[in-house]
Structure formats: C-alpha cells, structure tokens
Amino acid sequence: MRRLNSCLCVASGLLMLSVIWPDSCLSAPPQSGFVDQVYKDATGEHKYVVFLPSDYSRDKKWPVILFLHGAGERGTDGVSQARVGLGPVIKNRMDAFPFIAVFPQCEDIRGRILTSWTAQSADGRRALKILDDVIKTFSVDPKRQILTGWSMGGYGTWSLAAANPQRWSAVAPLSGGGDPQTAQRLAGLPIWAFHGVDDDVVLAQETQNMVTAITAAGGKPRLSMLPAARHEICDSVYGDDRFIAWMLKPSASQPLPNEFRGRPGNRPLTESNQEDPFRPAVDVSRAAYVRLGNGVLKALAQSVPQMVPADMLSGKVNDIHDTTVAEGRTFNVQFTGIRYRGKITRAHIKAYKRDRLNIQLAVQAVRLEINRTYVTGRSRSAVAGPMSVVIGHRRPVWLSVALKPKIVKRRLKLELIATRFDIQNDNWYVTAPTGVSVRGLGMTRNRVANGLVRGLYDSRARIEAEFQAMVPGMLAEFEKNLELGDVATLIGRFWPLPVYRPRLRVWPQEVATDPQGVSVVFGVTAAAVDPRRAPDTPRQVAAVGLAAESLEQSTNLEVGIAGDILAPLSRLLIQADVARIHVQDIPGQAFESFADAALLKQAIPDLQRLGDDLELWSELILVEPLRIRDLVAGGPAPKSTAPKADSEDPADDPSSAATPDSPTTDPPGSASDPQTVARQPEPAGTLSASTFEFAASQVIISLATRKAGQTQWKPYAELEFELSQRAQAGLKALDHETRQLRIDWSGQLDVTTSARFAAGVNPADPQIDAAQLTKLFRTCWGKWTSQGAAADTIIDDIAVGQSRLRADAAGWLAPNLFARFAPAAIRITNNTSQPLAYEIRSETSDWGGPYSVGANSSDQFSVGHPLMLRYRVDDAFQTHTLGVGTHFNFRHPDGDDDGAPRLFRVPKARR
Length: 911
Description:
Low-confidence stretches: 1-29, 255-259, 261-274, 494-499, 633-687
Largest sheet: 10 strands, antiparallel
CATH topology of the largest domain: Rossmann fold
CATH class of the largest domain: Alpha Beta
Oligomer: single chain
Structural class: alpha+beta
Shape: elongated
Radius of gyration: 33 Å
Mean pLDDT: 83
Strand content: 35-45%
CATH superfamily of the largest domain: Alpha/Beta hydrolase fold, catalytic domain
Distance between the termini: 22 Å
Number of strands: 42
CATH architecture of the largest domain: 3-Layer(aba) Sandwich
C-alpha cells in the first residue's frame, strides 16, 4: 500500500533494491508471456495485462488468477500493476508458471485506498468484467478461478470474494483486511490468508479478525502469519511452490508450511515499484552512517574463514626464472606449471591509526606444486619432475596487510599500503623432485635434485614475495563484501514512522579510520515517485548529518540516520502530490473521527444544515515538510571532536599492527575466548532513552460533502494544524534475543488549529470551534502514536558469518537516531532449585570447566561462534550445540521435580 499514510509517514527504509524490469518484458508475443490488452466499455478504453504460460495452447483449459495490486500502482499506464506483487514472481519462473494471470489496473488515483477494489467500486466491477473478457478470449477453465491481491488488493480480495463466493475456486488475500460481517458468505470458500507479523502499514489484526469471524461462521480458512515479516510479503508467498500447489488443488489436504522461502537468489520485494526504473530525484549528503569499531571488526574476523570462498587461496603462479652458480658454472633455472592451494584458518582485522586498517590472515597447509623445472647451462642441462613447497605445516603463517580505506566513485575501496609475510625456519619444507633427467658431463640426478631443493630453501625471500604478490587479487575479492547493504537496510528498521518508504539507495560518501575503528558516512539518493517525471539531474541537498571524522570513536557497531533527512524526503512526496490520504485509510483507523459527521458537527455547527444523510470526504494533506528537531539549546553538536593525527610511522608497514608470529589462542578474556563467563541478570526494561521533537508545521484536513446517492463531492472546509511533540527513543529488551526500538510519545503535544470554509460555501453559522478540533486532533494523534506502527520497531540481529551482533542501545543523539550493536552473548539459565555443573568448548578448544550455575541464575558467554555444552546425566554426557546469541535453560521436563534436569532452548518472544 505504497501511498498509505504518506502525509504523516516518510520513513527512510534503506531497502535493498531488485533488478530493474525493462518495459520490453511486458511486450511478449501473444502466444505466451506478458501480453498487453485493452478492455473497452462505455467509459472508454482500459489497459490491462494477461500472462500466458510458456506452453499455452487452446487444447487445454487453464486455471486463471485474478491479481489485485496495491495503492502504489494505481493509474492508467496499463503496466505498473504487473511490476509489483505477483508479476515479478511470474517473471522469475515464466517457463514453469502453470496459470493464466490477469492484471487489471485501478484507475481511481484519488479514491479511498481501502475501498478502491471493493465490489461496490467502479474499478472492482471492471476487474470482474476484464476477467470475463479473458475467459472468453483465452482457453480458461471457468471452474478454476483464483482470486488474490496484496495490500489495497488484499482488501479487494476479501470484498470481491464475499460478493461472488460461488465464482472462486481459491481465495488468497495478502496484507489486507476486510469486513467481518461478510464472514458467513466466505465460510464455504477455500481461503488461505497471509500477513506479516511486523506489518506497520496494515496491522496484522485486520487479517486475524477476518479469519476469526469466518471460523466462527463455520468456515475453515487457513492463516499464515509470517514471522519477522512486514508489509512486503508477495515474494515470500507467491514464490513458494507449496502455495502454487495449493492454488492448483485448494481442496487437497496439505500441511501448513512454517515458512516461505520465496524466489531463490532474490531478496524480498518492497511495496514500492521495485521493477520500475530507479530515476534519481534527490541526493542527500551525510544522511546516515555506520561505525565499525574494532570490537565488531574482531567479531567479523572470527567469521572470515567461513566467509571467504573456497578457492580464495588457490590458483596459478607465473613461471619463476632464476640463475645459480655451481662449481664455477652458471645455470639458468626455470620453474613452470606452478600452482598453489591452502586454507585460511584465522583472521584479525583492526584499525590501528589514522587512515590505516590492518588485516591479518593465518594461512596454513599452503602447498606450492611445481610441475616441472628446467636447468640449462653450457653443454649441460636437466629436467626435473614435480616437487612441492609446503608452508605452515606445523602452525599458521600470518599474512599481514596494511590498507587505507577510501571512497572512489561512491564505492568503498581498500588501497594497499604494504604487506608482510614471514615464513619461520621450522615451519616449511621442500620435497625433492619425483624424477630427474640429466644431460652433460658431471650432471647427476642427485646433484640436480639436491641443488634444486637447496636453491628453493635459499629462495625463501623470493617465495615470500611471490605469496605477497597474490594480495591484490585477494583484496579485490574482499572488496566485493564491502557493500554494507544489509547494514544500510537496517536503518529503516528503527525509524519511528515507517509506513511510507520512498525508494532509496545509499552510497558511501566519506570514510575515516582511527585507532578505535572505521566510520563510513553515507549519502542517500531518493527516486522520483513517478519515474516518468524525474528531473534530468537530482536535486542536491546539503549535508544533514555529521562528517565521518566527527563521529564518536566507539569500538562497536553503530548505525545511525540523520533526523533532518525527513525534510527533503517529505518535500519530495509533497511535490509529487502523494503526501495525502483519506483519514479512514490511516492504519488502525486512528483518524477516522474526522470522517464522523456527528462528531464534527460539534465543532462546525453549520454541518447540521446539510441534514442527516450527509456524507463526508476527509483527506489529510501534508503541505510543509516534516522535521525532527533536537531539544538542546543552540542546536546539535558533534558527538566528539575529530581525532588528532597519529605520529608518523617511518616504516608505515603492517608490523606497526603487532603482527603475531604464531598465536595459538586469543588473549585471555577476549570476546572469542570460551573460558570467559560473565554473569548478568536477564535484560529487561529500557536500556537507553533520549528526547527529540517531531514537528509538522502545516497539516490540513480537507473536508468535502455530498448527499447520499450523489456522485460529486463539494469542497466544504479546511482544518489546518501545526503540531510539535517531544518524544523519547530508547531500546527495550523483550527477552534475551529480541530488541525493540521504542518511541515514547508521552511528551507534551503542542497543537495550533485554524479553520476556514472553502470558497463558495455560505455557512448559516460561520463559527468554527478551534478548541473542539484541537481536542479531537489530540485524541486521534494519541491513538495513532500509541500503535505499533509509530511506537515499536523490532531491531533484528546482524549476522556476520557465524557471529551475531545484537542491539544494546538505541535512541536519539543529535543529529542522529542511532542503534548500537555488540556481539550477541550465549545465555545459560538454571531454572531449578540446585546448582548445576557443565562444561563448554569451541570448535578449536578443549572442554573447559566444569562450571557451576547457581539456582535461578544465569551464566553468559560473549563469543562470536557457537559453543558445545555437555553435562552429566547419570553415567553419560548429554551434549548440545549452542548457537551464537541463543538462550538455553536447565529445567525439569514436564514439571517433574524428581527427574534429572535437562537443557532446553528458550523460544524468542512473540512479536
């Protein structure tokens, strides 16, 4: 529901974008694919799209799907409706999609969102006529007509299904609500409804209410609540083979799937026109930032061995040419067919000075295989067979690389400064060649073999140099993982007003390295709401956040977004004339009182002269941009001053980062040391909170009236509000694993109200009670801000290889709304009345302990990798694998206090 609540909500959800779908994809030949069609009636021509399967023929009767799109695809272009929702899923599997699919387009771009597809609307009635037209034109099985829709189309699905229940063989509404009073008409239909648990556009309760009512009426609807999913669930549902199988045979008995995997290799689509071209409209400088402190870099390093490609440390080396002198004679030596392979077993990543980052890789079991060696001299020569150089057979050899992070053409790059690779004398060896052939006086096989082996031992520096020459290629592979897209996406997860999300792309703008970590500042580009009206060049907005060098030099991960980004993004929507919404379409019906004629008559007495059959059209319009303001006098200040330049390092090589020679374990007490145990109470309550001010300088509720049965609305009055409210942003722990950004809107709400009658209205009573309107607005605003869409947002963990980073603080710190992350700990709780003993180990350590966790207390392990835990039951050990960031408890099974305690995974809190 792309425009829903656009006047109030312009969240900057930095979402990963799908591949652009060119227009040509909708111009396939009529035999198959997406076909442009036109339906004609008394009101004119109406464009729509039909998809025909790849093996379509008139020899077979095909099932048909009628898809109803969301609010963002309204219009008359005839193609937008097939670019979001079901259309992209079909495009991804065109060769195997077994349905004809019909895509009508809602043409009423000014009508109410929630009723645009209803059976009573012109567009809803026309959608059914278009379906009839397709059934006449193509080879359709009339007994297998499937109705589905998403968001605004989800509301239409419930409505059209109830109006024509005998027509549909299956009904599947997504992310949309309906009228529970129609439940009796829906009770006999095969229904499978879907909704995201964290949907903040259409609350999940809307679908739950429908399913509850239909069940009470004797129906057997299916309901799948997608965990951790928001409004955009089309990809997950339509892309699942089990759902497609259900649509083909909806009466078949099938188990309910617990999850939906979506299209392989693709990210979920968003509610925006992701398949439309991304046409830049606004560039905002310094809009967001990511702080990668050394603490999170260490957690990242622990996962490097699992993250690097298997072939990272393998490849081919150019031939090596050398000369040697034996018994006064000079020989040319050529090593050919050289290949290498090895493995990376550990890694360290650390920022250690201004503009310097150090990456250390522990390489082990590196084998250079030399296929053939040629020795030539005057009248003498030899050819040797395969021989090998084995490095790191006893312990790892550390490759250390000094880098300078920088931004090149809006991409984060790593400039190579220096490398270091030292092979210890006792940690490598050379094998003799498997065969030698010689020619010439004095040339013997043993002399040649021994000479080649000795020569390679004498060439250790050369081998080290050849190994370091591989670094640029390895660095190019490493840079591919520096997109930071997933971290940028996270920014939208904790924005307080996330209903309307302009299409955004982020790009690195500045980078600064200091002794504590790396700071990356991002610019943001917003797409034009209508790609056809995009400017030739995007409008440039001055920096709204801090410079990279002004960010606090923390050691953890921190993600932030500048509050002032709200102004240019909301201005973009205002200029596109989409910052408006009918009050009854706002989530949770928070502002529906402004469509209640009886209530408004108390503030506007003139409404009484219009009679009891009065109908009201109430549209909320944003006229001026929204703003977030800091409450500190004098405006926002930098979080810290820029770091001073470090003293110059004469060598400026990786040795300044304290390259380890042969570490076998991390220093005691480090985040990856499994022997470190910290006992902490179960987190609860607000962990951090800070205050900001939300302001809207001009919000208008425009009123129009008509009599029942009339079709035309007449402008009546404009109610104008200026508001500001203090709010607190903080982090709340719902349980050990779940963190929630909480916006507390309980601060002082200041509202200034004015009102005027529309031009041409001659009121019998010209008085308008501004105080009554202010009171009504306060009530509606309070209802809206208390709902989940405006108050609560789950902040998911960030997966870094095997590690997980979890929010441990969030709030407002001028000029940014931020979330800070730390390594997620493994928690072990004893819910029995007696102390319990256990042992733990990691993949690279021995069993440690035993540890004793007291009755009704917990132990916590701050590690970046899974742990193995074992405890003794009778004469045997019970062993469990504890994932990073999880919570387990010892308890008696089934409440049997006499039985031996067992270890159980503690489920996460329901969202």
